[in-house]
From TrEMBL:
<feature type="domain" description="Peptidase M3A/M3B catalytic">
    <location>
        <begin position="195"/>
        <end position="571"/>
    </location>
</feature>
<dbReference type="Pfam" id="PF01432">
    <property type="entry name" value="Peptidase_M3"/>
</dbReference>
<keyword id="KW-0482">Metalloprotease</keyword>
<dbReference type="Pfam" id="PF08439">
    <property type="entry name" value="Peptidase_M3_N"/>
</dbReference>
<keyword id="KW-0645">Protease</keyword>
<dbReference type="GO" id="GO:0004181">
    <property type="term" value="F:metallocarboxypeptidase activity"/>
</dbReference>
<keyword id="KW-0378">Hydrolase</keyword>
<dbReference type="InterPro" id="IPR011977">
    <property type="entry name" value="Pept_M3B_clade3"/>
</dbReference>
<dbReference type="InterPro" id="IPR034006">
    <property type="entry name" value="M3B_PepF_2"/>
</dbReference>
<dbReference type="GO" id="GO:0046872">
    <property type="term" value="F:metal ion binding"/>
</dbReference>
<dbReference type="InterPro" id="IPR013647">
    <property type="entry name" value="OligopepF_N_dom"/>
</dbReference>
<keyword id="KW-0862">Zinc</keyword>
<feature type="domain" description="Oligopeptidase F N-terminal">
    <location>
        <begin position="109"/>
        <end position="176"/>
    </location>
</feature>
<comment type="similarity">
    <text>Belongs to the peptidase M3 family.</text>
</comment>
<keyword id="KW-0479">Metal-binding</keyword>
<protein>
    <submittedName>
        <fullName>Oligoendopeptidase</fullName>
    </submittedName>
</protein>
<dbReference type="GO" id="GO:0006508">
    <property type="term" value="P:proteolysis"/>
</dbReference>
Length: 587
């Protein structure tokens, strides 16, 4: 069967960025936000008024998510759609207004007496969202007064978030001059760090470091202001740790975080032979920072889009008929934008449309093995949303750490089968090396970021840090995370990495490692139990937006995430990949 490589958007809002239906919907959302605000002005709250407020909260949430997803699709498929950019600005304003009203809603429900609150939640209309409402109620008790929270949020737009946006300004002004006189942007230069020729790769890395050293003072100011704002905000909320917010956002405990990193430390030991062998293959005593992700073999196998679709559907079917049927439906209904054409933004994503009960996937497909893995990954995200499509909007708001569960799981299914079917030794080496690189990223690179941020926040509580101090903290964190296996490091990584400057998600690091290992543990269970695990897998995904991760794992897997055992088993899966790598590179 031949599948379209252009997605279908007309059934969501006809007319694209000129859609009158979308304009009318946004106008209606604005009225609903105003209605919710007026409802919260009442002196007393009844079950009827609470039910109406919860209905409005969810209706606005679903519409905003739908519209935001649609507009993100418009901007991704055509970076020059100026009307879509205007719509995006309009949505940001509506989201800010909604957040402000939600702050008042959270405060209101936090003031309801416990016994009355329990009676309210026992009613059948609210019981499905009881966990989410309780979560909002408890969090409101640990925040400032609603008017102060609203003021802080308003000031943050041009302050806190403004500093986050300033990082984009810094990056946009950077350019790297080559020997032939041509100039590259930061994004283009980053691609040269994966050069197969070591001398070229080393030269590119030195130029990369030099470029960021020239911007480092600006980046240091930015990072100091961002962290200073957060620490002041936390102090006024009487939060005692810089990890309180990221842990709360990811619905996990400090005990689970500690157990995960403890297991990662053990898992790192399994990677040492890989580092030693790769250094030998490159003819050096120790790998340099720029060698860690250097390609050792190139995969020459390519697939057409239709071949990739057939392969993915077949492999999904080996785990679950439902997963395979969903993927087939996504291809048949043109939910995937994969065409290789100018004007598209780079990268890939999956976005949810909760009102339409659909998803859309964006990528640029050129037929590589990496493209096939990316497609499987995004289809995993889409399946996660698919099994939640009939649930209340509040329960579909799952956190970053579990957001990667279904995507990584789907990718593992396909990548393992691709490795088994690889037609040559070179193909196998390229694929297994790619798998090990992912483990290194989550066990070491992400860990270095986490160690750095912890050290940074501890020092920043006393005073702003200089560029030299930030470099020192970064190298120290990298040495610890990489077991000092490298000959040199990346001092200005803290300046170059976007994730340190994102203001909507603090500590944009450990959730990645959580998601990778959590998926690996689930994948191991699926291999052992086969088809009988499918229903349990769907049920687990459905609960990702309404349980703490510890409760989620205990309910569906029978494991305790606060203890290292589950994490150690997941982290040990890399041993088989390292064994195969050593066999393939035996000389």
């Amino acid at each position: 069967m031949s599948y379209s490589q252009q997605w279908e958007l007309e059934s969501i809002y006809a007319g694209g960025s000129d859609s009158t239906q979308l304009s009318e919907e946004l106008a209606n959302v604005e009225l609903q936000i105003q209605k919710l605000a007026q409802s919260l002005q009442a002196d007393s709250i009844t079950y009827e008024s609470l039910h109406e407020q919860v209905s409005l909260v969810q209706a606005v949430l679903a519409t905003l998510r739908e519209a935001e997803s649609f507009v993100s699709c418009l901007m991704a498929q055509n970076m020059f759609d100026k009307r879509a950019v205007q719509l995006n600005d309009r949505l940001k304003q509506l989201s800010a207004a909604y957040t402000s009203v939600l702050t008042q809603f959270d405060h209101t429900i936090s003031q309801i007496a416990d016994q009355q609150w329990e009676r309210f939640l026992s009613q059948p209309e609210l019981e499905p969202v009881a966990y989410n409402l309780n979560e909002r109620r408890e969090l409101a008790k640990h925040k400032m007064a609603p008017e102060l929270e609203a003021l802080a949020a308003d000031l943050a737009i041009d302050g806190y978030h403004g500093w986050g946006d300033f990082y984009n300004t810094v990056v946009s002004r950077m350019s790297f001059k080559l020997e032939d006189g041509s100039e590259l942007s930061a994004g283009q230069m980053a691609n040269r760090l994966d050069e197969s020729d070591r001398s070229k790769r080393e030269a590119a890395f030195q130029q990369w470091e030099q470029g960021w050293s020239e911007q480092a003072d600006l980046c240091a100011d930015t990072l100091n202001h961002l962290s200073g704002f957060r620490l002041k905000w936390y102090k006024n909320r009487s939060w005692h740790s810089y990890l309180d917010e990221p842990l709360q956002m990811n619905r996990m405990s400090k005990q689970t975080l500690d157990a995960m990193w403890q297991a990662v430390e053990k898992g790192k030991q399994l990677l040492i032979p890989y580092f030693e062998r790769k250094a030998k293959l490159l003819g050096v005593n120790k790998l340099a920072w720029h060698d860690v992700e250097a390609p050792l073999a190139a995969s020459s196998t390519t697939m057409s889009f239709d071949e990739a679709a057939a392969f993915i559907i077949e492999q999904f079917g080996s785990f679950s008929k439902e997963l395979a049927d969903f993927a087939r439906m996504a291809f048949e209904n043109s939910w995937i934008e994969a065409e290789d054409r100018p004007g598209k933004r780079p990268g890939g994503f999956c976005t949810s449309l909760p009102k339409s009960k659909q998803t859309r996937i964006f990528m640029t497909f050129s037929g590589s093995a990496s493209n096939v893995s990316t497609l499987a990954h995004e289809l995993g995200h889409a399946y996660h949303q698919h099994v939640m499509k009939d649930m209340p909007p509040l329960t579909q708001e799952y956190a970053m750490n579990v957001a990667e569960t279904a995507s990584t799981f789907a990718e593992m299914i396909v990548s393992d089968q691709a490795l088994l079917r690889a037609p040559s030794k070179e193909e196998k080496l390229a694929l297994v090396d790619d798998k090990i690189q992912r483990a290194i990223a989550f066990y070491m690179n992400i860990h270095a970021r986490f160690i750095f941020e912890c050290s940074f926040y501890e020092r920043r509580a006393e005073a702003p840090l200089t560029t030299e101090s930030l470099n020192e903290l970064m190298v120290r964190a990298q040495k610890q995370a990489f077991l000092d296996l490298l000959s040199d490091y990346h001092p200005h990584f803290w300046a170059a990495k976007l994730h340190f400057y994102l203001t909507d998600v603090p500590f944009y690091n450990f959730p990645y490692t959580f998601g990778y290992l959590f998926s690996a543990g689930i994948y191991k269970r699926a291999l052992a139990e086969g088809e009988s695990f499918r229903a349990a897998y769907d049920a687990l995904l459905q609960d990702t937006g309404r349980l703490m991760v510890e409760e989620l794992a205990h309910k569906h897997l029978g494991v305790d995430l606060t203890k290292p055992h589950f994490w150690e088993e997941a982290a040990s899966l890399v041993a088989e990949d390292v064994k195969l790598f050593l066999e393939l590179t035996e000389q």
